Each structure stands twice: as structure tokens, then as C-alpha cells.
User: Fold this.
Amino acid sequence: MSNNAKVAVGGVAIGLILLIWLPWWVAFLIVVGVPVAAYLALDPSQRRRLRRIGRKELGR
Assistant:
């Protein structure tokens, strides 16, 4: 199993646990908030590069 698949399986497992353990809106805020916080933590040049390249090219 590739590293990306392991991360995806772990993310789904954590998401299911959060949905059971926390109210749905808190789990939704976590699921949406973490990627937004990671994007905002990037430098402006990194954000431009991320927008410029395609989604398929991110893993290269």
C-alpha cells in the first residue's frame, strides 16, 4: 500500500471516529479548518505555485 493510500485510510478512520464522538458540526469544522489553516500557513509564493500547478502534479 502506498503512503498516500495509508494517509487516506487513516484520514477516513479519524473522520469516522470524530463523527461518532463529536457533534457533526465540530467534525465538519475540523475537516474544513485543517486544510484552510495549512493553505494560509504557506508563503505567498508557495500559494501562487500551488494554484498554478495542476492537482495531478502535486505529488511530483
